[in-house]
Amino acid sequence: MTGSSNSLIWLASGSPRRTALLAQLGVAHRVRPVAVDERVRPGEAPRAYVQRLALEKAEALWAQLPAAERLPVLGADTTVTVDGEILGKPSDFPECERMLRRLSGRTHEVCTAVALRDAQGADVRLSVSTVTFRVLQPEEIAAYWASGEPRDKAGGYAVQGLGALFIEHIAGSYSGIVGLPLYETGALLARIGWSLARSVTSATGPQAPAHTGAGG
């Protein structure tokens, strides 16, 4: 567990990328990863799958928390989909190579769902983006695997890392592709009283309004 005593929420994820994105919003939080069954159910569509997992992660951590530690819980999950198939995290080079060859020169979909669970219940939001890859060369794929970056990434690449070299075009939410869509996250956090103005004020202290009138 990480975080301070004045945390606003729990994050049910060990992803350093999601932690960094929450910090970007100035949201104080504690981190406690949870394990859920990530197998796709028969006939389950990718968008339904990612929303279910985000909710299950948030619900799982909420159920684990003792009363003294009960804060709202944020859960998230990201999928990369091509031809209707969900691409997971590659476990070895051949699997990563197969994934990146499928993405090479094509447009695929990245879905990230974020869920909030508190005493009032649960809510989930979905961010859908498309990413277009240029044509990849075999030696690039091999070098990319050797860098270590693809190993824990859905679809076998990281948009915020060396994987950015493969991308011709993005349509949608960059933060959603990284792993936590900030627009949707902010909308959920507003439900529990968070706002940008309050976050900035708590970080910097009350600020006097700027004087914009004529001098005198």
How would you portray this structure in words?
The chain has 216 residues and is of the alpha/beta class. It has a single domain (9-201), classed as Maf protein, CATH 3.90.950. The protein has helices at 16-24, 46-64, 93-103, 138-146, 174-178, 182-190, 196-204, and strands at residues 9-11, 29-31, 73-82, 85-87, 107-118, 121-133, 167-171. Strands 1, 2, 3, 4, 5, 6 and 7 form a seven-stranded mixed sheet that branches. Strand 3 (73-82) and strand 4 form a beta hairpin. Mean pLDDT is 90; it is low at 1-5 and 206-216.
What's the CATH class label?
Alpha Beta
State the CATH topology. Maf protein
Q: Helix coverage percent of residues?
A: 25-40%
Regions with little confidence, pLDDT below 50 for 5+ residues = 1-5, 206-216
Distance between the termini: 55 Å
Biggest sheet architecture? 7 strands, mixed
What is the domain total for the residues?
Answer: 1
Order of helices and strands: EHEHEEHEEHEHHH
List the helices and strands and how they pair.
Elements: E1 9-11, H1 16-24, E2 29-31, H2 46-64, E3 73-82, E4 85-87, H3 93-103, E5 107-118, E6 121-133, H4 138-146, E7 167-171, H5 174-178, H6 182-190, H7 196-204
Parallel strand pairs: 1-2, 1-3
Antiparallel strand pairs: 3-4, 3-5, 5-6, 6-7
Helix pairs in contact: 3-4
